[in-house]
Amino acid sequence: MRTVDIRVPATSANLGPGFDALGLALSLHDDVRATLTAERGVHVTVEGEGAGEVDSGEGHLVVQAMRMTFDRMGVPQPEGIHLHCRNRIPHARGLGSSSAAVCAGILAARALADSERAGKFSDDDVYALATEMEGHPDNVAPCLAGGLTISWSDHGGLPRMVKLALDQRIRPVAVVPSTRLSTEAARGLLPKDVPHKDASFNAGRAALLIAALTREPERELLLAATEDRLHQHYRAPAMRASADLVERLRAVGVPAVVSGAGPTVLAFSTSDTQDLIAPEVGNDWHIQLMDVDPVGANVQFPETR
Fold this sequence. Notes:
- By secondary structure, this protein is an alpha+beta fold.
- It has helices at residues 61-73, 97-112, 115-120, 123-134, 140-145, 183-187, 196-214, 219-225, 232-235, 240-251, 274-277; strands spanning 2-13, 22-37, 41-48, 80-87, 148-153, 159-164, 171-177, 256-258, 265-269, 285-289, 298-300.
- A hairpin with an 8-residue loop joins strand 1 (2-13) and strand 2 (22-37).
């Protein structure tokens, strides 16, 4: 038997204007213990989020990611896989739960493969496969690298990223509803084309947001920098409560956006805005003040602890 422990962070993508490009790793984690056994079959146990709901066999996303990684490395599929998942990242809330599962599975498979095969499967390979499975890199990048990330694809279609450090005066606040929304449903509301003026507007705001998050986190600058015209208002009919909360928070001076595809709302809290958030949030929401995870996914072998 071989065992590895993987810790992966929640993530928030888009951050307002940075659609499919900006992402942030958050201090909320899923823990996965993966064990290869001589006993045939797949057995998955889940604690916390998704317990009793997600697939407990081959259909589990971590298992699927492991299988695909073994194939990419040219490693024979193991006889048996046992997973124990301790999930804290809410599912279908716009906090990167699927990216976390994909990254956990890929990293687990690489860690459990023989050293020669694993050594040939680079961090770039991990990132590329995770992006392929997710369809876009905006959550994958911060999950793997931590911090604030900018992701894009090069001319060959390979995903790339740059990691930045968030100004320490900013605290992300996730306002999580009890309702869920699938990424596919949210993406289905986006138009195929957008006006040139809206694209130009978002390009400027995304550039401004990098400056605001890394060096000038004044409230007025963050409010301007988190404005968006590309996706949030198109998705609003699918998450009216989230859209209304974003409007209320912004009206009292809190830089707030929809987290990823929603319906979680992410606020960038500073010393002069923290007390403004709770009065605008109803009982159907859970407010979670977080830190930024600076390192991203972590791999450990139990015997080395």
